[in-house]
Amino acid sequence: MSRGFRDADATQALSEQAVAEAIDKIVHREDSAVQAAGDGLCVDCGRKIGSERLAAVPNAVRCIRCQGAWEQANRY
Question: Which residues contact 34 (CB under 8 A, 6 or more apart)?
């Protein structure tokens, strides 16, 4: 085997570790979003979510401005 290359098992282990870390970040972010939403605060900017928005969408985690930006950024 040439220098600088890992074997398949080591490469697979690194790949699995990277996936596990990415999943951990997503889960942590979602937990934070749920907690912030319970406080009525936007998870992106930290400002209070408007009462009209919460009345219309009780489980909203973003203010209307941040929600619009999020939807634009996550278009398919």
Answer: 61
